[in-house]
Amino acid sequence: MKILITGKNGQLGKQLQKQVPAGVTLVAHGRDTVDVANKEQVFSVLGGAKPDVVINAAAYTAVDKAESDIEQAHAINARGSENLALACRELGARLIHVSTDFVFDGQQSHPYKPEDYRKPLGVYGESKARGEEAIEAILPEAIIVRTAWVYDREGGNFVTTMLRLMNERDQLGVVADQIGTPTWAGTLAQSIYALAENSEAKGIYHCTDAGAASWYDFAVAIFEEGKSAGLLPQDKQVKVGPIATADYPTPAARPAYSVLDKSRLVKEAGVELKHWRQVLRAALNTTELQK
Ligand SMILES: NC(=O)c1ccc[n+]([C@@H]2O[C@H](COP(=O)([O-])OP(=O)(O)OC[C@H]3O[C@@H](n4cnc5c(N)ncnc54)[C@H](OP(=O)(O)O)[C@@H]3O)[C@@H](O)[C@H]2O)c1
User: Fold this and answer.
1) What is the per-residue pLDDT for 287?
2) Does 290 score more than 60 pLDDT?
3) Would you state the torsion angle of the CA atoms of residues 100, 268, 184, 125, taken in this order, to the nearest 10 degrees?
4) Which residues contact 282 (CB under 8 A, 6 or more apart)?
5) Which of 49, 58, 93, 134 lies deepest, with the highest CB count within 10 Å?
6) Is 220 in the pocket of ligand 1 (CB under 6 A)?
7) Widest pairwise Cα distance in the chain
8) Roughly what angle, to the nearest 10 degrees, separates helices 185-196 and 11-18?
9) Over the stretch 33-54, which tens digit does the pLDDT of each residue have?
10) Where are the domains of the chain?
11) What is the pLDDT of residue 67?
């Protein structure tokens, strides 16, 4: 199976390159060779490569910046997704697109199912929702994988930011009234490949690690697991305290609750999702991270 990925330098893009299954030939593109917002380039590169499957790991992910950069967010997340769907339809390739829990408003108090109504709160969520809708209209057999709170042991994300701040400071306030599920980028990559291998899979799937947490819970776990992994000095003390969203204003509103129901993914892709804390421990304990 020949798989082409976009967004190769992002968190997911890197894990997709690390976890290539046997029997897959991977062609990986970054923004320099496939700008998803550039329709001509998308058609020309995909047409030349003739992949069986295209995985779209490219996205405009700066949630707060998107509030004042509406055109770019839509060009990449909405029209970029549309360009890929049109090219895949012409080539007869399968498309696996990645989306977000931010398509929901967070007013629910039980896990969101793939078929629940989209009601984004901000520009980023709106642009991702428009991308989903474009793909569904152009290529109904495409796969859309919604995920949330993605991190890896490198790059800019909540885990690396917390570890840096915990090394620098003695005290941190972290939002405790937003509930979701941390997701290691590796879990997402493995789940996407499992869906690629199921020729019957189509439509929307939800993928995160298992369980639920507030950002505050996640930060406390990062402190404890970071210490055990030797990423923080053993004698380091940091007072991590819970704060309210209202006390940490951001340009973009975020869903208060965005736990996703993963039962369809588990059933149809046969993946086993482990509790987020167990996955965090494993991700932080790799020798690669400790270098
Ligand atoms: N991160 C999260 O917490 C989170 C949560 C829910 C859903 N998601 C979704 O998960 C997917 C993967 O996210 P991620 O965390 O891996 O994001 P990421 O680390 O920000 O990577 C996104 C990649 O897309 C590339 N890109 C941006 N604009 C592009 C364009 N016009 N054409 C081609 N490539 C472009 C970026 O390139 P540059 O490096 O050049 O900017 C970057 O390498 C995205 O669909 C995102 O919406 C992420």
Assistant:
1) 53
2) no
3) 0
4) none
5) 58
6) no
7) 59
8) 60
9) 999 999 999 999 999 999 999 9
10) 2-157+181-211+257-275
11) 97
- Classified as helix, coil or strand, 12 is helix
Q: Each residue of 1-29: b (16+ CB within 10 Å) or e?
A: eebbbbbbebbbbbbbeebeeeebebbbb
Query: For residue 235, how far is its CA from the centre of ligand 1 (angstroms)?
Result: 36
User: Ranked by mean pLDDT, which of 245-249, 254-258, 286-290 comes out on top?
Assistant: 254-258
Fill in the DSSP letter of residue 256: S
Q: What is the pLDDT of residue 277?
A: 97
pLDDT digit string, tens, across residues 252-272: 999 999 999 999 999 999 999
Inform me whether the pLDDT recorded for 289 exceeds 80: no
Beta-bridged to residue 4, according to DSSP, are 27, 54
Tally of CB atoms within 10 A around 244: 11
Q: Which atom of ligand 1 is nearest to the CA of 59?
A: 24
Q: What is the CATH number of domain 2-157+181-211+257-275?
A: 3.40.50.720
Least confident of 29-33, 130-134, 245-249: 245-249
**For residue range 5-18, what is the model confidence (pLDDT) as tens digits?**
999 999 999 999 99
CA distances from 159 to 113, 202, 237 (A): 27, 32, 17
Q: 239: CA distance to ligand 1 center in Å?
A: 32
Amino acid found at 5: I
Which residues, other chains included, contact 95 with Cβ-Cβ below 8 Å and sequence gap of 6+?
A: 53, 54, 56, 84, 85, 88, 135, 139, 142, 143
Q: Report how far ligand 1's centroid is from the alpha carbon of 247 (Å).
A: 28
Tokens encoding 265: 């993914």
- Residue 186 has which token pair? 């590796």
Q: Which residues neighbour 260 within 8 Å (Cβ) at sequence distance 6 or greater?
A: 101, 111, 112, 146, 147, 148, 181, 206, 207, 208
Residue type, 103: V
